[in-house]
């Protein structure tokens, strides 16, 4: 499943997954909801229909946005300034591919997420959709 995104580079990338990651980021990092949905549709595989992208909000908590709703949710929330994020270009291999994990690689890219919701809305968001990471990772 090698896809290539011309003129997009990722610092510290060293593996056969680089073309996929670069292609995804070329679209996702635009912060354009339609292009972000296109990235999710073209470059991601989902084990279940209700699975989605996981966005870490702390070191051990995350929000999962259903993969079919990325464009709709981002088109609603980004213009309101409810949340925004930025990511660096450097990646670290968090989980290397092995036979045991089905040759799945997990990469980490540090960044910042800002939630501008006010106390009540943030509390509702936190209590209703933010989850603990599996095994505290």
Structure description:
The structure is a single chain. With 137 residues, the chain is an alpha+beta fold. It is 31% helix and 28% strand. Strand 1 (52-58) and strand 2 (61-66) form a beta hairpin. Helix 2 (33-43) packs antiparallel against helix 3.
In summary, what is this structure?
By secondary structure, the protein is α+β, with helices and mostly antiparallel strands. Helices cover 31% and strands 28% of the residues. It contains four helices and five strands.
Mind sketching the topology for me?
Layout: H1 18-28, H2 33-43, E1 52-58, E2 61-66, H3 70-77, E3 83-95, E4 106-115, H4 118-129, E5 130-132
Antiparallel strand pairs: 1-2, 2-5, 3-4
Note the main attributes of this structure:
137 residues, alpha+beta, 3-stranded antiparallel sheet, disordered N terminus
Number of strands: 5
Instruction: Give the helix level as a range of percent.
Output: 25-40%
Q: Please state the overall shape, judged from the principal axes of the Cα atoms.
A: globular
Which secondary-structure class do the elements indicate?
alpha+beta
Question: How many H/I helices?
Answer: 4
Q: What's the average pLDDT?
A: 83
Distance between the termini: 28 Å
Strand order of the largest sheet: 1-2-5
Major sheet size, sense and barrel closure:
3 strands, antiparallel
> How large, in whole angstroms, is the Cα Rg?
15 Å
**Range of strand content:** 25-35%
Q: Provide the low-confidence segments as ranges.
A: 1-7
The helix-strand sequence is HHEEHEEHE
